[in-house]
Amino acid sequence: MLETEGLVKRYGTATALDGFGLTVAPGEVAGLIGHNGAGKTTFVEVVAGLARPDAGRVVIGGTDARRAPREARRLLGVAPQELALYGNATVRENLRLFGALAGLRRTALARAVDRVAEELRLTDVLDRPAGLLSGGQRRRTQAGTALVGEPALLLLDEPTAGADPDTRAALLAAVRARAAAGAAVVYTTHYLPELDELGATLAVARGGRIIARGTRRELLDGLPGEVRMSPGESTDLLRLPPAVRARACREAGELRVTSADPPAVLAAGYAPTSVDVRRPGLDDLYRSLASREANADTEGGRHAAA
Ligand SMILES: Nc1ncnc2c1ncn2[C@@H]1O[C@H](COP(=O)(O)OP(=O)(O)OP(=O)(O)O)[C@@H](O)[C@H]1O
């Protein structure tokens, strides 16, 4: 549904996109992750036609977005990171406007507005000016403007930033429903659990390009997580099996063990009074990709020298 390749976007001397390429299939939620400044928002802006790339291709539903921007734009709904609503218009008017831009009219438009308001728990504030909404209500309304036209491609840039648990749950359910109905979704976030809830594939951006792409299992399985244990009656590290002991350290009265297989640490027969298992997360993934890149650079340097 979305194919992009070789995207370059420069701002003066800064290169925001440096050969960025990402493909998303119908029904797929692609979780776009990466440190601040990796190029995620610039990518969303380029695909949405809000920023012009210096090079590269954007194809939406078979339509080249640079050659036929209007046609391509009709296929997508975007919720930008910086909220952009008409503050003097009511929530209903904002939703109607975006629904109309997507080609909906009369009954179909009214029905779509009601549906999205109900899904995103906006029914009670439909007639309130958008400028008077709380932060969470505003974020839900922004997401609503992206969803209301039932686009084939959804671009959601940190849609749950600053959202309370109810807002988050409503948004995630609405996104899941769109993907289940066949929409392709690009979803940027800094929270891995959200992407798990969405059953998303992962795309890791760094330095203006995608450096890793795959399922959570492909990218995170095998990375070391962590087990923290209160040691119980004995604080004797020697009671730990040697393989576990080698990766253990004592910290503020707790034992901390780094392991790619945390449950195996517990199966080793040690009996702590409390246990906290942290499975590998985004930090671990970024660290492992950075060290892989550093190794590749060193290898490259060695080959060049040879
Ligand atoms: N309008 C602009 N003018 C100058 N530089 C820009 C502009 N927009 C983005 N950049 C730069 O391009 C790079 C990528 O920024 P971008 O906002 O796309 O990152 P991001 O991955 O979305 O970060 P975040 O997680 O903080 O949202 C950054 O170095 C940023 O400073």
UniProtKB/TrEMBL annotation:
Principal cellular location given in the protein's record: membrane
Location within or outside the cell: Cell membrane
Cell wall biogenesis/degradation listed as a keyword: no
Keywords, ordered alphabetically: Antibiotic resistance, ATP-binding, Nucleotide-binding, Transport
Bilayer topology annotation: Peripheral membrane protein
Protein name: ABC transporter ATP-binding protein
Sequence ranges assigned to domain ABC transporter in this UniProt record: 2-232
Organism: Streptantibioticus parmotrematis
Domain of life: Bacteria
An example Gene Ontology molecular-function term: ATP binding
Similarity remark: Belongs to the ABC transporter superfamily.
